[in-house]
Specification:
- This protein is α+β, with helices and mostly antiparallel strands.
- It folds into two domains: 7-246 and 254-443, Creatine Kinase, Chain A, domain 2, CATH 3.30.590.20; 506-636, CBS-domain.
- It is built from 19 helices and 24 strands.
- The strands form eight sheets. Strands 2, 3, 4, 5, 6, 9, 15 and 16 form an eight-stranded antiparallel beta sheet that branches.
Length: 637
């Protein structure tokens, strides 16, 4: 759950003290590995379930604190945003019926979350990215009021030195900037943990890296963000960019992002990862340190290594090494952070079973995977899977590139079955969960494919916001049914709940595909744009996308009556006829407020701006179209 008793480092002395504790923790870890006091010979599994909270209009609901108060269960904790929640399952020994036990506990905790959310007027959704999420949901007001999150935002933003830039290209393109780390809250995941012994850590961690791509290809569930069709697992690109503190420089200096796959195989122990992360990434959070780890070791206690764990929690490898204490014994875990939340608990446990089985099975089959596979292939596989899902071409052991679907069905699923059998996992459970993965891959119906197919099936029916709401509503409905995603029927537009809730705010239906001019361009261009696009307004912006004016059809008609080109030295500039400082609205403005502004100021359009930047427009014509649809609907009734 992370160390919550934190504060932003504000003084050089405080940083020096923290780093001293951090280095002391590393030395203590070295001693623990040398003396064999870290638990070995025991395999345990665990999981963290992140989820979205939505309201009755299928939008993000900032009610996490109220839900936590209702649920009153220590398994639950907050996440970065008020519309996210997390629960942690109890550790289970890896063997026998552990997979079935994992699913049952997750279903029980999810039922608690759903009941508490309903009491607060909301619902729970398992999704890698909430389809109906809006940019306005990502303001600091939506951040959970926890010192850790506030300090993390301040520290990362200071290191970044300015806004965070986002550029993701898939079928569509997403290109925007944001002034805080709340974009990270767009992502929710299903993080699985696998406890391993220190003597086998390097081999098993490397195998976890090797199988990360194929497992992700079978599990993708995040293809949409703000209505844009991007990567099949858009979380991978979005998470890296959401907390990327690197600054562009004049020289080709290599800088590692805080979210990464890693740079090379691990050669000997977990210490290599801890040391590299300390060397490459500045400490950005600190907390009070009271324990001397060497005193704890001398007294026969497992030290907390609080500084090491805190620093480790601010470096986000897709496969992360974790140090923990269970029943008084220190242990090491591999945490798989790449798997998305959802589509159902059954799907998630199936993904976990596939991963557990592969990590176990490949250890038995290959031992040291680094002798059979290049790190660059594992790295490339991961990002190919994130971008293309089951359509990716993946490199595998001694066999070159293969289609992801064939590799999984012909090679990896049998290896995973062998791995689960070697661990003496209940055969019926192994068949059930790996069977889900097999049917999902064979049919090609991952969560990502279901979302994209549903989105395409709705075509251009209704506004974008209504289609995205339908995806959210249908996902919640199908999750209650419990069937894995490859059995889900496609979402339908009518599941959004009707037109009304999709026209509540300007951002839900504003036009964002804008054609603009600069104030220095000739008025003749404006006339042509109005003619070509049959529009009554042309917006004027500067090079920084700041709105500087508006040219209306009425202004152009007045110009025609007075314009004499023979009296002009040259073409008339847009600045001569534009209306500066037009009436504008923010994307969060309600529709009723927007209509009131248009009536009060007698204008037929409202540019939509955020921090002065032009992002959209709403027009009288749009409201006529909406009114026409409503009138037609009422008359049909």
């Amino acid at each position: 759950m992370g160390e919550h008793d934190v504060r932003q480092r504000s003084e050089v002395e405080e940083l020096r003290v923290f780093l001293k504790h951090l280095l002391n923790d590393v030395r203590a870890m070295e001693q623990m590995l040398e003396t064999g006091v870290i638990e070995s010979g025991v395999r345990r599994i665990g999981a963290e379930q992140e989820m979205f909270l939505v309201d009755d209009t299928w939008r993000a609901a900032p009610i996490a604190l109220e839900v936590l108060e209702q649920v009153a269960d220590p398994h639950f904790t907050t996440e970065l945003a008020r519309f996210n929640l997390e629960f942690n399952v109890d550790p289970l020994e890896f063997g026998g019926g552990c997979l079935g036990d994992l699913e049952r506990q997750m279903e029980k905790l999810l039922a608690e979350a759903r009941q508490a959310a309903r009491t607060c007027g909301g619902e729970v959704l398992l999704a890698g990215i909430l389809p109906s999420l809006n940019r306005s949901d990502l303001e600091l007001a939506s951040m959970t009021p926890n010192p850790r999150y506030l300090a993390l935002n301040d520290a990362l933003t200071r290191l970044r030195g300015g806004d965070y830039q986002f550029f993701i290209k898939g079928v569509d393109e997403l290109n925007f900037h944001h002034d805080n780390i709340m974009v990270e809250a767009c992502n929710t995941s299903f993080q699985v943990h696998f406890q391993v012994g220190p003597e086998e850590f390097a081999r098993m961690y490397n195998i976890a890296q090797a199988v990360a791509g194929p497992v992700l290809a079978a599990a993708t569930n995040s293809p949409l963000l703000f209505g844009k069709r991007l990567w099949w697992e858009t979380r991978v690109a979005l998470f890296q960019q959401s907390i990327d503190t690197r600054r562009a420089g004049r020289h080709l200096r290599e800088q590692a992002p805080r979210v990464s796959f890693g740079r090379q195989w691990v050669r000997a122990s977990a210490l290599e990862i801890f040391r590299e992360d300390i060397a490459r990434f500045r400490a950005i959070l600190s907390t009070e340190m009271e324990e001397d780890p060497f005193v704890a070791l001398a007294e026969g206690r497992a030290p907390e290594l609080k500084a090491l764990r805190l620093h480790n929690s601010t470096v986000y490898r897709w496969n992360r090494v974790c140090y923990g204490i269970s029943n008084g014994s220190a242990h090491l875990r591999i945490e798989n952070r790449a798997l998305p939340s959802g589509p159902t608990v059954r799907d998630e446990v199936a993904n976990a079973a596939f991963w557990f089985g592969l990590v176990s099975g490949l250890l038995e089959r290959y031992g040291d995977i680094t002798r059979h596979m290049q790190f660059e292939d594992a790295h490339r596989n991961f990002f190919a899977a994130a971008q293309h899902g089951l359509n990716a071409q993946l490199a595998w052991v001694d066999s070159g590139l293969r289609p992801a679907r064939d590799l999984i069905l012909d090679t990896l699923l049998p290896l995973a079955r062998d791995g689960l059998a070697t661990a003496e996992i209940d055969g019926g459970d192994a068949d059930t969960y790996l069977g889900v993965v097999e049917e999902r891959v064979r049919s090609g119906r991952t969560g990502a494919q279901w979302l994209l197919s549903s989105f395409a099936d709705m075509g251009g029916k209704g506004p974008l916001a209504e289609r995205l709401s339908a995806l959210t509503a249908a996902s919640v409905d199908r999750q209650h049914g419990g069937d894995p995603v490859h059995l889900w029927p496609l979402a339908r537009l009518e599941e959004s709940g009707g037109w009304k809730q999709n026209y509540l705010r300007v951002e839900q239906y504003m036009q964002t595909d804008l054609i603009t001019v600069s104030q220095d361009e000739p008025v003749d261009l404006v006339a042509q744009l109005m003619d070509w696009n049959r529009s009554r307004h042309v917006l004027v912006e500067d090079e920084a996308n700041l709105l500087v004016g508006l040219v209306s059809q009425r202004a152009m008609m007045r110009l025609i009556g007075t314009y004499n080109p023979q009296q002009m030295d040259g073409p008339l500039a847009v600045s001569e006829v534009m209306q500066p400082n037009p009436v504008t609205v923010a994307p969060e403005t309600t529709t009723l407020e927007a209509i009131g502004l248009m009536r009060r100021h007698r204008v037929s359009c409202l540019p939509v701006v955020k921090n002065g930047h032009l992002i959209g427009i709403v027009t009288e014509d749009q409201y006529m179209e909406i009114a026409g649809r409503l009138l037609e609907q009422k008359l049909r009734e």
